[in-house]
Amino acid sequence: MIEPVIIKKEDIKNFRFPKEDVLPNESDIKSREKALANALSLGNLEHGKVKLIFLDLGMNPYQIETTIWALTDESICLKGDLLLPKRAVLDIV
Fold first, then answer.
1. Which sign, positive or negative, has the C-alpha torsion 44, 50, 55, 60?
2. Phi then psi dihedrals of residue 43, to 5 deg
3. How much is the pLDDT for 22?
4. How many Cβ atoms are within 10 Å of 22's Cβ, its own excluded?
5. Where on the tree of life does the source sit, at the highest rank (predicted)?
6. Residue 11: its pLDDT value, please?
C-alpha cells in the first residue's frame, strides 16, 4: 500500500469520498466496526487519539490523528462537527 499523506482533521471537509466501501469483504468491515467501537471508548474514557487511514474519491490514502466523539451507522463524528464516512476508512491505528 502507498504511504498515506498525513493531513489535519479539519481538512477532511474538503474531500469527496468513494460511494462504495473501500474494504473488500464483510469480515474486514466487521473488524473495522469493532476497531471503531474500541476507538470511541478510548476517546470517551481516556480522551485518547487514534490514527484513521482513509481513501478519497480518487482512491488516494490519507491519515488523520483524532479523537472519535461518536459513531452513526454511516459516519464517524469528530470534534468540530466533522464527519468521515465509515466506508472510506481503511484502517484504525
1. positive
2. -70, -40
3. 98
4. 21
5. Bacteria
6. 97
Rounded Cα–Cα distance for residues 58 and 81 (Å): 24
Task: Name 52's Cβ contacts closer than 8 Å, sequence gap at least 6.
Answer: 63, 64, 65, 66, 76, 84, 89, 91, 92, 93
Q: Helix, strand or coil for residue 30?
A: helix
What pLDDT does 31 receive? 98
Q: Are strands 50-55 and 89-92 parallel, antiparallel or unpaired?
A: antiparallel
Q: What is the model's pLDDT at position 80?
A: 86
**Fold observed for domain 5-92:** SH3 type barrels. (2.30.30)
pLDDT tens profile 1-26: 689 999 999 999 999 999 999 999 99
Collect the ranges in the chain with pLDDT lower than 70: 1
